Amino acid sequence: MTFVYEKGFGFEHEMGEKGAGLIFIISAPSGAGKTTLVKEVIKQVPGLQFSVSFTTRLPRPNEKEGKDYHFVSHSVFQKMVKRNEFLEWAEVLGNRYGTPRPDLKKLEAEGVDLILDIDTQGAKKVMKEIDQPVLIYLLPPSLKVLRERLMNRGVDSLEMVKFRLSNARRDMEEAYGYHYVIVNHSIEDAIEKLKSIILAERCRRGKPLILEENKRQWEEKDG
Ligand code: 5GP
């Protein structure tokens, strides 16, 4: 085949100006700085959209309906589960969270990539449902720093901080099943790394990003 380069040849996403219909999943223990990171990268990377999940938890003071989450009652959530409207859903700390099914063909046609901020249970389910999502795990620099960040946020009691930390220890082991790991030493550094991963994935051709052995062990652990 003769390679004739012309506009519209199908490599436009390589310029980083539009997406390629990719699904990025980012997970982290709470307090690692994921929300700030994702918000900043969405602002800076063209063609990247946030997948707004549905949740039964109540909005926090700074959160907006339809932007951070769609806040719904337990009965609405249950109806959506029955109608199979979620790509995946999970219970996290007593509340339910669900990712609406994306229209993958439309995303690709429109040059949009989606970023899903979901926990590790959700990531495993998405891996079974769709082809080659890109999994990124955000780690805090240490448990000590994570503890300090949770304390300084001032939203949790000491008991809750302890509970989150013990969950975090277990959750962080799941990083081994992810394709990329970013350590959040500084937010600027983490932003650059996440942007680089997204741009590199837009340029990558063909080779599946599968950590076969890790994926097998990971799925076995989950049952
Ligand atoms: P938060 O209540 O702090 O916003 O989120 C709690 C946890 O739920 C976070 O780890 C977040 O990534 C996760 N989460 C948010 N949306 C979803 C979702 O749609 N599905 C799953 N599985 N987890 C989610």
| Gross CATH architecture of the largest domain | 3-Layer(aba) Sandwich
Distance between the termini: 46 Å
Distinct ligand kinds: guanosine-5'-monophosphate
* Computed CA radius of gyration, to the nearest angstrom: 18 Å
Strand order of the largest sheet: 2-7-1-8-9
Number of helices: 8
Helical content stands at 40-55%
- Looking at this structure, what is the CATH superfamily of the largest domain? P-loop containing nucleotide triphosphate hydrolases
How is the biggest beta sheet arranged? 5 strands, parallel
* Count of individual domains: 2
Structural summary, described in words:
By secondary structure, the chain is α/β, with parallel strands linked by helices. The protein folds into two domains: 3-51 and 111-222, P-loop containing nucleotide triphosphate hydrolases (Rossmann fold, 3-Layer(aba) Sandwich), CATH 3.40.50.300; 53-101, 2-Layer Sandwich (Guanylate Kinase phosphate binding domain), CATH 3.30.63. Helix content is 41%, strand content 19%. It contains eight helices and nine strands. The chain has helices at residues 34-44, 74-82, 104-110, 120-129, 143-153, 158-173, 187-203, 212-222; strands at residues 23-27, 48-50, 53-55, 69-71, 86-92, 95-100, 113-117, 134-139, 180-183. The strands form two sheets. Strands 2-7-1-8-9 form a five-stranded parallel beta sheet, with helices on one face. A hairpin with a 2-residue loop joins strand 5 and strand 6. The longest helix has 17 residues, at 187-203. The protein is globular. The relative contact order is 0.19. The site of guanosine-5'-monophosphate (5GP) has 14 residues, from strand 5, strand 6 and helix 4.
